[in-house]
Amino acid sequence: MVSIELSDVQGFLVNEFQGMQYSRYVMLQVTDTAAAKNFIKSIAGNITNANSETAHTGLNIAFTSYGLAALGMKKSNTDTFIREFREGMVTPHRQRLLGDFDSSDPGGWQWGGPQNETVHLMLMVFGSDINTAENYHRQLSEQFSKGLKEVYHIDGQLLPGNKEHFGFRDGISQPFIKGSGQSGKESDNLNAGEFLMGYKSEYNVYPDTPFLAEAQGDTSLLRDDIAGSRCKDLGRNGSYMVLRQLQQDVKGYWTFINDKTKNADGTINEQESKRLSAKMMGRWPSGAPIVKWPDADPMDLHPNEDPAKYIDDNDFFYNDTDRHGMKCPFGAHTRRLNPRDSFEENTHKESILLANRHRIIRRARHYGEPVVGSPTGPAPDGEVGMLFACFNADISRQFEFIQYTWANYPKFKQLVNDPDPFIGVKETPVEGTQQVFTIPSHSVNKYVTGMQRFVHVKGGAYFFFPSLTTIKYLATL
Amino acid sequence: MATQGALTLVTPVIPGRHDELDKKLMKIRAAHAAGEFKEFEKIDTLHYARFVLLEGKLSNAQTNLVFSSDYDGGEDEHLAMFAATCGELVDDLYSCCEGYPAVAVRSAASRKSYLKKWSSKEAAFYVGAPGRTLKQIKQECTLRNFIWEYLRTGTWHGKTAKEVHGIVRQHVQKHPEFGWAKEKIKIPVLKWWNFVLVILIAIPLLPVAIPVIAIWLLVLHFFHDKKDKVLGLTPSQLDQTFLENLEEYEDFQNQNQFTQIISMKPGWFRRVTIQAVLLYGKFRIYNEFVHGELMGIPTIHFARWVMLDNKKEVLFFSNFDGSWQQYLGDFIDKSGWGLTAIFSNTENFPASRYLFWGGAYDEEHFLAWSRYYQIPSHVWYCAYPHLSIKNVTTNSIIRSELMRDLNEEQAQTFLNRF
After folding, report:
1. Partners of residue A81 in chain B, C-beta under 8 Å
2. Chain-chain contact of A205 with B364 (C-beta, under 8 angstroms)
3. Where are the beta strands (DSSP E) in A228-345?
4. If you measure CA to CA, which chain B residue comes closest to A394?
5. Which end of chain B is more exposed for a tag (fewer CB within 10 A), N or C?
């Protein structure tokens, strides 16, 4: 097995930074190229890499295509980056693929949209507590203020129990990079090239990597492209990061679910409410997979037991135990976005192979009041949501494919009118079409109609997440 | 059983009229997008249609207007219908093409015989739901939605699946508009006997065939594969404007179209090879791929391969569910060998080995190659953009299961199809 040059990989790609609960993502614009490059040079040695010892603070950095140009990278060189990154998240075609319309329209975004100030690069500042993160940000801003101006920043944190705002435990199922020293169950260990450039992908080829078409900067820092193009490689040990600010309407969500499951007298049926939301998610709020616990959250069934054995349970498939979706509906969020062996026309092995060509490493942080929702719980004050980040080497085949084909496309598997109940529902569907969530049942399926959208995109961009070597190089442009 | 046909018309445009025709087509595209172009809807046997301008790709070195359609019934009937129903449209577009009848002599008959002149027979044609006419597809969709609504709003507590199935059938039978559902339909099956037949015929030929094929593949590999040029581009190296132009017309609904024209590699050897492969493909399409999957790909409604210009060019058309990335990815994941066997005979395909290996499995280069040879469709029409091929197939099964007596397990499967 190829081993990964971990100390050249930025840390957030490999680690969740559980020890650094707080984060501040700082979007910057270059105002003085020389000063900006000086700043990058000055922090290049402080970037948290995948081998770094656990610390109280962490720092990672990511660049948009505009940022690379603003630092002086020649067009012939920026042109070697994948097109999705070059064009950014906001093009008419991409808007259709990602389904960013109405309340998610880039025109209304807080950052990254066409109306917003262009983001060139982003500092991802982490801290073990909120003050540490803030102080680190302040200290950095003194250093970058000569060459960079802040256009936006947003704080995030991990919520208690690793929950997201609707109330579900998040980030349980992740792929692992072969050769990184971390591993999960066999079908979750993927070739590094799915997430890192410079290594072979699940297709056993090297992913498209950016390189120097024209010499500039200190090229002695860079190595030759491993695929044999004889050009200096910018991509090796780097990745592409998708960042989306997803506002969550917690009150709207639970009101909708409560309404669909209310008792005959109109009161909230908490048990049924939880059950429906678990059917839509594919896991109970605790994290327990419904394919193993179809009737109730084991957390409620056995409140005195140690929950460790089921809240992070990722050891399951669908085809052997739930071929007809009677336990976990085909349309459930987790069954759609990580189908495992759920493609009924293929064997278990083939199905996993197919699913594994569309995996992402997710890194979520949550913003706004740290309230975790439930059927009867309080709704948070003000805007809350998820700062969804994911890593992939091929944005089109991984993130965009998942968002379009598995989440937005209402005909996933044999479904007819079922978009992903969390992130795929359209606010303005084609006239005459219903949006439904189908729950396969005995003898007649149950249907939740009038599906609504409770997750609204409020910002986003595609970033290049370079290796430490390339960060150093970028300072020499 | 009704059959579906593929019409391909390749008509030379009068030199100098290209821009005018281009404008006309783009106007139709805009009108169609706005819901104002209704010509194709008038043909109740037309599943898909598209207009493409082939610029300088053929040896007549001029622009050719390509019309393609997937239809029910015979070609003659279809052409007659097209000429009669869409006369104005035909006049408007084909008056920019060579030899179109003068105004005075234009009639449904003269239009038809003009169009027929330009028809090219396809080398292979895949139908996702063979036998299903447009009328049937629409009827079965209505039936499915009707039953779905009934199931959704009914109270079924305590009833077995078998009981529910019976009640649903009675309910449908009470509605005369579904009288047609009683007619038995034939859902195509795997024609295994043809495989047996072919094997029986092939066995005595094996002593000759095996060495011939082996030598053929060796010659192919050592005298062709190794010398052939490849495109060598990755997706990020393709022309930006060209791709934007293609994407401008993609992902508006749940379906998309794909049009490609690629020159054959020179020489008779490649030509014979591709024809043999397409013949083999045709056999499997007709006998085996009859359940809505082409070589394992469950998203294709129609696809065709047409050899043009004395077999120097390969034209490929398909209509499919989902996005381009999904479609091409599926091709690699599920039938990369099949794709390689066909397209390794065309120019600049990623390096292949012994016909079936390499090629499409070189993911990055293959995706770039696919886009590189794609050409934009000017106008694309789909009669049922709201249905996936899986929906079409399931709806036929629903109809046929509705009218049969089912046991409890079968009835449960039936109900879970909704």
Report:
1. 236
2. yes
3. 239-248
4. B364
5. N
What pLDDT score was predicted for residue A330?
A: 96
| pLDDT of the residue at A216 | 97
DSSP-based three-state secondary structure for A278? helix
Question: Which among B164, B247, B332 has CB closest to A444?
Answer: B164
Rounded distance between C-alpha atoms, residue B383 and residue B385, angstroms = 6
Which tokens sit at B414?
A: 């039936």
Identify which of A120, A9, A4 has the alpha carbon closest to the alpha carbon of residue A62: A120
Predicted confidence at residue A2, as pLDDT, reads 83
Q: Express each pLDDT in B160-202 by its tens digit.
A: 999 999 999 999 999 999 999 999 888 888 999 999 999 999 8
Nearest to A208 among B326, B364, B394 (CB): B364
Sorted by where each starts, the structural domains of chain B and their CATH numbers stand as 4-121 (3.30.70.100), 135-185+393-416 (no CATH), 192-382 (no CATH)
Instruction: Test B323 with A404 for CB contact under 8 angstroms.
Output: yes
Task: Give the per-residue pLDDT at A301.
Answer: 87
